[in-house]
Amino acid sequence: LTENQCQKEGREGTRNNTKRCNLRERISKYMDRAENIKKYLDQEKEDGKYHKQIKIEENATGFSYESLFREYLNETVTEVWIEDPYIRHTHQLYNFLRFCEMLIKRPCKVKTIHLLTSLDEGSEQVQQSRGLKEIEESLRSHGVLLEVQYSSSIHDREIRFNNGWMIKIGRGLDYFKKPQSRFSLGYCDFDLRPCHETTVDIFHKKHTKNI
Predict the structure, then answer these.
(1) pLDDT score recorded for residue 15
(2) C-alpha 41: how far from its chain's center?
(3) pLDDT for the residue numbered 209
(4) A single GO CC term, please (predicted)?
(5) Is residue 117 within a helix (H) or strand (E), and if so which, with residue range?
(6) 187 HSE (CA, 13 A, CB side)
């Protein structure tokens, strides 16, 4: 190599080293920032101040129970509380059943589900009681206890996990629209099912209260 070539390669090496140093410094800053954000969110959760809101637009898709809740479900979830006044009609019972199916899948290790709902005062009261009884028996065969209580004054809709997460859905579990037909997309896969407009508020508290 000539002297000029050596000097040129030396300058390029210096520039490359400088670029690498700058890149490492930027990455380090991003990592520190991410860690600080994580610490802030963890503290917000610890203080019970965490709040996230999701707006589901009219006819929006992609909001199955799995898509909406999976971020908050892990192996620490062993107990769940559901307050929803409208687990009455057939489609609402199926919604509750789908929600329970999600809970018994991994990574959850749910052992107890508490449901507080209202009692249907019409002709479908027998169907409501029978449907919830069948769900209870099915869950029992999977080692999960379902405790059902009724309230005539319940209005709020709320879901709580014993890992501290609390989810409030404006329409409760009944935010899906009726499918166009039994053979239309979205009849089975609820990620493809259009939704009613509603709001989802997500909180985290250090302790959850019993119903």
Answers:
(1) 66
(2) 17
(3) 47
(4) midbody
(5) strand 112-117
(6) 7
Bridge pairing between strands 79-83 and 50-56: unpaired
| Domain range summary for the chain, segments of one domain joined by + | 15-48, 51-204
20-33, pLDDT tens digit by residue? 787 788 887 777 77
* Distance in angstroms (rounded) separating the CA atoms of residues 189 and 111: 26
Q: Which residue has the tokens 């700058």?
A: 22
Residue appearing with tokens 């991994």: 106
pLDDT single digits (tens) 51-104: 899 999 999 999 999 999 999 999 999 999 999 999 999 999 999 999 999 999
User: How far is 132 from 207, CA to CA, in rounded Å?
Assistant: 28
How many residues are given for the chain? 211
| Contact call for residues 166 and 145 (beta carbons, < 8 A) | no
Q: Which residue type does 111 have? A: K
Give the contacts of 48 (CB within 8 A, at least 6 positions apart): 203, 204, 205, 206
Within 13 A of 163's CA, how many CA atoms are on the CB side?
A: 14
> CB-based contacts of 121: which residues, under 8 Å, 6+ apart?
none
CATH superfamily of 51-204: MITD, C-terminal phospholipase D-like domain (3.30.870.30)
Mean pLDDT value of segment 159-176 = 96
What span, in angstroms and rounded, lies between the C-alpha atoms of 135 and 144? 10
